[in-house]
Each structure stands twice: as structure tokens, then as C-alpha cells.
Design goal:
Number of domains: 2
CATH topology of the largest domain: Immunoglobulin-like
Largest sheet: 7 strands, antiparallel
Helix content: 25-40%
Strand content: 15-25%
Number of strands: 18
Radius of gyration: 23 Å
Shape: globular
Distance between the termini: 47 Å
Amino acid sequence: MGTIPKGFRPSTLASLLEEGNKFHLNSFMQPVLSESNLAFKDLHWDLDNDGVSMSVRPSQVRVSLLFTLWNCRMIPVPGSGLQVLSRHVRFCLFDFKKVLSNIHTIRATWQSKSPKTWTFSPRVTGILPSLLDGDCFIRSNSQFPNIGILFELGITYVRNLTGHQGELSCGWAFLSLFDVNGIAVPNRTYEVAIHGGTPYEKDIEVDPTFSRRASLLGQLVMARKQPKLLVKLMSPASNLRNTLNLLPETLVGPKCYIHLLGFYRQLLADVLLKDRINLQNADLISNPVLATFSDLLEQPDIVDGLRSMWFERERLLKRSEKRDKEFMKQEFVNVYYNSAYPLLYSVTLPDNKWANDHVEISRWKYIAEFLQKTREKGSSLYSLLSPENIHQAFDISETTYDLLGTRRKMTIND
């Protein structure tokens, strides 16, 4: 039957994600109220360089980086009694005491001839699903000296005998972002050792079979057999940095989301800071995009559909149009209404289930067909009115943004 390697543990980050939405991306995207609860701590309105128009005030932070997760090598294979449904890496900002950011998951790919090697960002036809994308961003204004990126390798499995499904950690790696003197580490490729146990345990090996405690000669021989994670740190280009500065101070996620998240924050500022007559008014706000964007971030394949439609639309725009911020925001809203919004409330679209290949393929097929019909007809109205597509009964929450129900309270971590 085979045994589970001694360094494997129940997944720490997966358990945090299951406790609620505290460590989900949609939670960290919401504005944070100040101590007085009368203003926002991280969302401000400011004059543009022309001294006339106004936009979101950029937020400069201590850490604003990109990274590419290349691969994980020499990862032990679990016992034959487990069927592996998914191999993945979850990451977040961490200081060895607590998780400091949201948690993002990257699905790994592997080949049967090399089961101990996990790779990311495979070559695909068309748009790369964000779940498989190893290019990510991190933002933090934390002053903790030992802040870094925690990578937890995990598998979703089902036991062959009982059918029980669960998640195991296959080890973890930590990349410190500052040296002992508080100086940022250089941007380059790092080969990071993978440890066993949980991030709160010390000196646990993933697989004691290849012990680091062997003799000096043995260590040299075994060095290549130690689990490693390969990751490259980079600084964002100036235009991408400008968009990143529109986002909350603490956030991690896929690089391909940055522009979409930037539009959301701009729309959020318009509604909460510019258009409200009384900033202390907490009534429901009629805005379908803001009302549904949090739900959208819980369904990466629909986000990918939105990305695809926006990419196609953006390619057709003139340079002068791309420089017009108000025009771009309105175009984004139009694309959102014709792609993501109707898909979120489709009954025909199968419910999202993690690590279920059949469901994931069915959803991809449905989303692709829906978007293709939208392209052919010029809008989603045809699909919305078609008897072939069934949608949930209308609920007022689909169009109203509840500020008090979605905002984040300021904590000591913020």
C-alpha cells in the first residue's frame, strides 16, 4: 500500500482557507476602515498631475515585487494507497508567527516519467488559466524585519479504500525578503530548500530517507536529492508598478489579475469617495460590478473568461482611448456585464469543485461557448434570453454593494 512520507502534514494554509474568507483575495481587496470608522485607511482620492482631474491616490509600500515560480524538484511521492487529485503550491506573506496576507494557490503540472518534479505555467493554446500561472505579485507595507514568502507544497488526495478526500502538505519553503541588516534581497533566481512538517516546526525533513544529517561525504552525495523550490524575484516595470500602487497595501496574487484588480479599485473609489454626497452614509449602493466582484474572485475560470474578453477588447482600442481613464473604466464595465456578470448567476454552469477534473472541464467548455456566442452576437443579451440557459432567480444582492457587509476592519496587522 505504501506509506506517507514522515515529513508530510495536514495542510496549514488549506485549513486557514477553509475557516472562512479571512485569507481569501476578495477579503483583502475590500477597503479598510480607519480607527474612527468614519473614513478609509487605504482608499483615498487625490488630484492628478494636471491639477484638475482626480483619481485614486497611489499607495507606495515597502515591498512591491513580482516572482516566477519555476519548479519544485525531488518532492516525495505519497503512498500507493492515495490517489492524487491535485498538486499545488499555496503561498502568502509570513513572519514565522502569523500569516500576513491573503493566500493564493498555484496548480502544478507533472509528468508520469518524472513524478517528483512539479512545474508551473505550462504552454497552452489560448489564454493560460490563472490557476496554472506561476507569475505572481506581492505587496506589503509591513515593517516586520523577517517578513518573507511562505510556499507550502500540497496535494489533494482521495484514499482508495475509504474514498475519504483530504489535503496534505508535502513540505514548505521560506524566501526571506530582507537580510539580517534589513536590506532587501537582490532580484535573482533562488533555489530554496523545502522543509518537512509545518512552518511552525523546526528541523523536520520531508523525507528522512535522504537525511541532511549524514556524514560530510554522504551530504555531498545526497545534496542533489534534497527537495528544492526554484523561484525568481523581479521588480515590476514602471507601468505595472503604477497599477500595483492602486491596490491595497497588503496583497498577493497572480500577475495576470493586476489590471483587473486595478479597475476594481478605481471603480470602488469612484463610488465610495467621489459619487457619494455624504461620506458617512452607509446605505446600500446600486452597482452590480462592486456587488459581484468578490464572488467573481472565488471562481478563477470566470475571471479567466473576463481576462480573455478584456484582452480582445483592449487590442481594438486606440492609444488616445487607452489614455482616457474614464473611457477605460466604462469599457471595462461593459466587458464585465457581457462576460463575468451573467456567468456568475448561471444555473447551467456546473458548481465549482476543487480538484475535480470532470467539473473543471465542463465549466471551461460552458464558459468558452458562452463567450463565443457573446462575440458572435455582440453582447450577452442573446444568451441571457435564450431558453437553453437557465439563471438563478434575481436577488437584490446581485446589484447592490453593501459597504458595511464587505469592508475590512483595521487590525494591528494592518
